[in-house]
Amino acid sequence: MLTGNEANPVLKALVDHGIQITAIHNHVIGEQPRLFFVHFWANADAETLAQGLKAALVHAGTAVH
Fold first, then answer.
1. Angle at which helices 46-57 and 4-16 pack, to 10 degrees?
2. Using CA atoms, how far apart are residues 28 and 25, in angstroms rounded to an integer?
3. Residue 41 belongs to domain spanning
4. Could you list the pLDDT tens digit for every one of the 65 residues in the chain?
5. Does any domain span residue 65?
6. What kind and span of H or E run contains 40?
7. Quick check: is 64 in a domain?
8. 65: part of which helix (H) or strand (E)?
9. Which of 15, 61, 54 is nearest to 35 (CA)?
10. Do residues 21 and 8 make contact, with C-beta atoms less than 8 angstroms apart?
11. Residue 62 domain-assigned (yes or no)
12. Rounded CA separation 1/57 (Å)
């Protein structure tokens, strides 16, 4: 789940790492902050996928170690 401010940077990072976005949607009309759900698909080795997900998560307000 992403806020409106997080969505574009996260989506860009996923795409930049070869991860395909398959859907973006929200469940509630008028909620604040706006929250978005992202569905994605990728087919690569575990290390490549982990690097792409890590690159996206740093933009999502998620602690990444």
1. 150
2. 10
3. 2-57
4. 899 899 999 999 999 999 999 999 998 888 888 899 999 999 999 999 999 999 999 999 876 66
5. no
6. strand 35-41
7. no
8. none
9. 61
10. no
11. no
12. 11
pLDDT at 31: 86
CB atoms within 10 A of CB 65: 3
Cα gap 59→39, rounded to integer Å: 16
Would residue 63 count as lying in a domain?
no
Number of domains in the chain: 1
Are 35 and 28 spatial neighbours (Cβ–Cβ below 8 Å)?
yes
Residue 52 identity: G
Backbone angles phi, psi at 11, to 5 degrees: -60, -45
Two structure tokens written together for 49: 């996928």
Helices (H), the chain: 4-16, 46-57
